[in-house]
């Protein structure tokens, strides 16, 4: 795997290191040892799948409060999505800043999202599917969110408004952190 750090601490893009032949390719998509060598989370307790029927479906921003914070490793396995994460770690030098990246089945990138960052994505194609490897079990009482258009963050999305967004995600209050 090839690891690229971003401007936000602990946020990393992971590219496949492919071994190709006439059959196609083989690549390691996750390895606890390699992640540890790069200072990234090595524990996975759950894998989540997000299937989205329609283009411009928005999911997020989601995160969990400590001690149930989740490290997430997100990969788009069908279609494409515009992913945004917001650094909500008050001790971080990039607190309240956001990072965007395109993830797709074609580019096969993985985004490592550390605890304390909220994540959201907008699908760019119908029938987009993503998988998350997650370091902690989902704890409903610890779930929190940020509204996709919260003025505190001024995220520039590739469309004016999502075509599909859940009531819960539409109604998160303004961020008060």
UniProtKB/TrEMBL annotation:
Highest taxon above the source species: Bacteria
Pathway membership, UniProt: Carbohydrate biosynthesis; dTDP-L-rhamnose biosynthesis
Biological process (GO), any one: polysaccharide biosynthetic process
One GO cellular component term: cytosol
Enzyme Commission designation: 5.1.3.13
UniProt catalytic activity: dTDP-4-dehydro-6-deoxy-alpha-D-glucose = dTDP-4-dehydro-beta-L-rhamnose
Annotated keywords: Isomerase
Feature type site, description Participates in a stacking interaction with the thymidine ring of dTDP-4-oxo-6-deoxyglucose: 138
Listed GO MF terms: dTDP-4-dehydrorhamnose 3,5-epimerase activity
CDD domains (alphabetical): cupin_RmlC
Catalytic site positions: 62 (proton acceptor), 132 (proton donor)
SUPFAM superfamilies membership: RmlC-like cupins
Described function: Catalyzes the epimerization of the C3' and C5'positions of dTDP-6-deoxy-D-xylo-4-hexulose, forming dTDP-6-deoxy-L-lyxo-4-hexulose.
Subunit record text: Homodimer.
Family, per entry: Belongs to the dTDP-4-dehydrorhamnose 3,5-epimerase family.
Protein name, entry field: dTDP-4-dehydrorhamnose 3,5-epimerase
Species per Swiss-Prot/TrEMBL record: Sinorhizobium glycinis
